[in-house]
User: Which sequence fits this backbone?
């Protein structure tokens, strides 16, 4: 029974780690994109003000 | 939430529900094979329901990746490169699961964690080849060159899939064959009645659906990653 439990534990842990890694990557990318977009907006506003 | 987001969520939910059903069938309904006498062998045999589908997902993922690689080389469209990379990551994860669960099953049936017989050797070579694919991609900076080299490498690596699949049918090996006739030296084989076959097919279907759910999720992440890279580069050259 120990072998069976060990095998199923490996299956669940590795699957969970893979799915979690995808979600974590997605979350970090979304936050990166948000920061970049904010940066672009603030740079655009500064440029507009200096042109005025 | 876009419609493709919704489809991904539905696929993941259905795959999750089927997985719960598969666990119920494996531990609650599946009978013990009649030819296995020791309790250790009978318990370990249940690894089969998730071990074989893990390899199936690996082979399916590498086949999809090879098709995408060929299409990338023909058309040069980025979408095929994204599918190729995503599919290989999933395939590598599942053959890692297949290798580890196989090794645990081998310990209980063959009394060893590993032996250099044809199936296990070709499996190890396949794993190393696809791990090499990810390392190769990581070592090339230029996006088009990375995609082109990756596609060629992926097509060459795909040779390991039919060799690995046929290893237990071509050569003398101790690894048993579930479908078809295997080597006379095979140890740990068991009789598959209709219930065992049906539950096994259900597990295969569940893992196939899980593969497509993960592929959809991984492809979306890869597109997002490329968009972030693109925006970063645009910012740098402004």
Assistant:
């Amino acid at each position: 029974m120990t072998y069976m439990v060990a095998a199923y534990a490996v299956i669940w842990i590795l699957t969970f780690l893979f799915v979690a890694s995808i979600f974590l990557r997605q979350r970090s990318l979304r936050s990166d994109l948000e920061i970049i977009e904010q940066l672009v907006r603030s740079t655009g506003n500064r440029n507009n003000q200096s042109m005025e | 939430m876009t419609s493709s987001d919704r489809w991904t969520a539905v696929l993941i939910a259905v795959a999750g529900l089927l997985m719960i059903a598969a666990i119920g069938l494996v531990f609650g309904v599946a009978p013990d094979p009649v030819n296995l006498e020791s309790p250790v062998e009978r318990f370990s045999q249940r690894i089969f329901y998730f071990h074989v589908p893990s390899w199936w997902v690996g082979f399916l993922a590498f086949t999809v990746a090879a098709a995408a690689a060929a299409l990338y080389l023909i058309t040069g469209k980025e979408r095929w490169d994204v599918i190729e990379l995503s599919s290989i990551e999933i395939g590598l994860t599942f053959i890692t699961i297949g290798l580890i669960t196989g090794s645990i099953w081998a310990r209980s049936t063959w009394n060893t964690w590993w032996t250099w017989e044809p199936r296990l050797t070709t499996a190890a070579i396949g794993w190393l080849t696809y791990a090499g694919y990810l390392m190769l991609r990581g070592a090339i900076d230029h996006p088009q060159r990375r995609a082109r080299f990756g596609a060629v490498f992926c097509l060459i690596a795909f040779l390991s899939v039919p060799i690995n699949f046929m290893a237990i049918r071509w050569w003398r090996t101790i690894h048993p064959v579930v479908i078809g006739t295997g080597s006379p030296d095979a140890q740990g084989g068991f009789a598959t009645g209709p219930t065992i076959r049906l539950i096994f097919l259900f597990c295969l279907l569940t893992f196939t659906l899980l593969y497509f759910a993960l592929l959809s999720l991984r492809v979306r992440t890869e597109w997002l990653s490329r968009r972030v890279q693109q925006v970063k580069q645009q910012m740098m050259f402004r």
In short: Chain B has eight helices and no strands. The CA atoms of residues 7 and 216 of chain B lie 9 Å apart. The radius of gyration of chain B is 20 Å. Chain B has a mean pLDDT of 88.
